[in-house]
Specification:
Its cofactor is pyridoxal 5'-phosphate. It holds the Pfam family Pyridoxal_deC. It comes from Penicillium subrubescens. This protein is α/β, with parallel strands linked by helices. α17 crosses α18. A 7-stranded mixed β-sheet has the order 1-9-8-7-6-2-3, sandwiched between helices. β4 and β5 form a beta hairpin. The protein is 44% helix and 14% strand. The structure holds pyridoxal-5'-phosphate. Pyridoxal-5'-phosphate binds next to α7.
Length: 493
């Protein structure tokens, strides 16, 4: 029975998602009605539990990862290699928290996966093979701001000759007090909501995340204003780059911008973090002129201090998986050390010194979430991931092209140059309907077709709709036909 179910699940995950991208109201109602109201004293047999899950609950799932036409949020999918590995992870249930080289290979595999990921993203291993796997980019942003907070206050303490220098050790309040500072601020342009959340979690404060945008382009840093903030003596600063803004998919910087920002951060002792949840993957593109503009947006990320990225988006591994890279090898342990747990355990004499994950990230006990990453990277290689991303970009551009020419729709951000719009398009399409009434309902009407799913958002103070393409199953021709078919139909009504 169990084997049969596993085989069925494998087929589901490998095959096409046949039903709508959203569950029917009936399926949802039936699933809801099937939820127990209390825990019975006697357990049911395994087979009954399996049937309940498969027959009652699964029909009320959405096509999020399995359908190629679920374009809400940025969900990614699950590659066959990652799916296999994830089942192995559950079956063997290894705890990846302490590096004990003669007890298990898992920490070595995690370290190797991080190195392979650095290779994929063209990050020099000798600098970047530090970091860890997290539950997602939110977790990685928390790590980035936490390391930044530690670093900028250490810098400030050093300058003033103050001993109280580690937030991890002494707490934020005591360190700020000893330094005569009023706080830490985060300077960014259109940061993702999770970065603001991270500031809240870390005692920096959501209100201390500031946009320092240029008036003519909200995604680009106003360098003059940035310097004015960095020069302040009452606060220390972390600069956070939106390496992929979530509505437009566009990049905040180019290599030239980033080197200017890097210089300013060095001058004033600021930390430079990049939220590259999905955008960091633009680094897999090669020098093909077709993708030159988006590639440029990801160039220079090797200059920052820390990078947050997502595994469960463009890498197409299952939830929950993110990653964090940091160029300062010994900094994270000041923040995340677990008292009494050895930081480094020597591996084989010629092997690398691998840190115990519990000392450099938030959790102690951890899932072996690096294995699906490892498996998928081995299975696709750089070329496979490049091909996947190119298909995603081409589909996004195809959709934009169609929208730009359609009398009922407006492509966003508004521009008079279609070729400029297409050049800047990564894997997101932002648009609205010209008719206000249709526009208010646009996302809902598209989703009501259940043939594709989009996210509603807002842009320039009015409702907008976003199509985010992140699934490995993308087929440009097939999906372009489906998407434009749905959009044409919705516009006619
Ligand atoms: C999705 C996203 C996040 C948050 O990532 P989670 O995986 O949901 O934790 C952060 N930043 C950006 C730019 C994102 O797109």
């Amino acid at each position: 029975m169990q084997e049969k179910i596993l085989q069925d699940l494998w087929k589901v995950a490998q095959g096409k998602w046949e039903s709508g991208v959203l569950p029917s109201a009936d399926s949802l109602a039936r699933a809801r009605a099937s939820l127990p109201t209390t825990l019975l004293a006697a357990g049911a047999n395994l087979e009954a539990v399996q049937r309940h899950i498969l027959d009652d609950l699964v029909p009320a799932f959405n096509g999020g990862s399995i359908s190629a036409n679920y374009y809400g949020f940025v969900t990614g999918g699950v590659t066959p290699a990652a799916l296999f590995a994830d089942n192995v992870v559950s079956a063997y249930d290894q705890n990846v928290q302490v590096h004990i080289p003669n007890h298990s290979i898992v920490t070595d595999v995690e370290f190797s996966a991080l190195g392979l990921l650095a290779d994929l993203l063209c990050l020099d291993r000798s600098v970047w093979n530090n970091g860890t796997f997290t539950t997602g980019a939110t977790g990685s942003n928390i790590l980035g701001l936490a390391c930044g907070r530690e670093y900028v206050l250490r810098q400030a303490a050093e300058k003033k000759g103050v001993q109280l220098n580690s937030v991890g050790e002494f707490g934020l309040f005591e360190v700020l007090h000893a330094l005569g500072l009023s706080g830490v601020q985060v300077l960014s342009t259109l940061p993702h909501s999770s970065l603001v959340k991270a500031a809240g979690v870390l005692g920096i404060g959501r209100a201390n995340v500031h946009n320092v945008c240029r008036a003519d382009n909200p995604l680009h840093f106003d360098l003059e204003q940035l310097e004015k903030e960095l020069v302040r003596t009452d606060k220390v600063s972390i600069v956070a780059v939106s390496a992929g803004e979530v509505n437009t998919g566009r990049f905040a910087t180019t290599k030239e911008h980033l080197s200017q920002i890097r210089q300013l951060c060095d001058k004033y002792g600021a930390w430079l973090h990049a939220d590259g949840a999905f955008g960091v993957f633009a680094r897999v593109l090669n020098d093909d002129p077709e993708f030159a503009t988006v590639k440029q947006g990801s160039e220079g990320l090797e200059l920052v201090d820390s990078i947050a990225g997502d595994g469960h988006k463009l890498l197409n591994v299952p939830y929950d998986c993110g990653f964090f890279f940091c160029r300062h090898a010994d900094l994270a342990v000041n923040v995340f050390q677990n008292a009494n747990a050895a930081y480094l355990t020597a591996g084989p004499p010629d092997g690398p010194a691998i840190p115990s994950p519990l000392n450099i990230g938030m959790e102690n006990s951890r899932r072996f979430r690096a294995l699906p990453v490892y498996a998928s990277l081995l299975s696709y290689g750089k070329d496979g991931y490049r091909d996947m991303l190119e298909r995603q970009i081409r589909l996004a551009r195809g959709i934009y092209d169609w929208i730009y020419n359609h009398p009922e729709y407006t492509a966003l951000p508004e521009t008079s140059s279609k070729s400029d719009l297409l050049d800047q398009t990564f894997m997101s399409v932002l648009f609205r309907a010209k008719d206000d009434e249709l526009n208010r309902e646009l996302s809902k009407r598209i989703n009501d077709t259940s043939r594709m799913f989009v996210s509603g958002t807002s842009w320039d103070g009015a409702p907008a709709t976003r199509i985010a393409i992140s699934n490995w199953r993308v087929d440009v021709e097939r999906d372009l036909e489906l998407v434009t078919g749905v959009l044409a139909e919705v516009a006619r009504r």
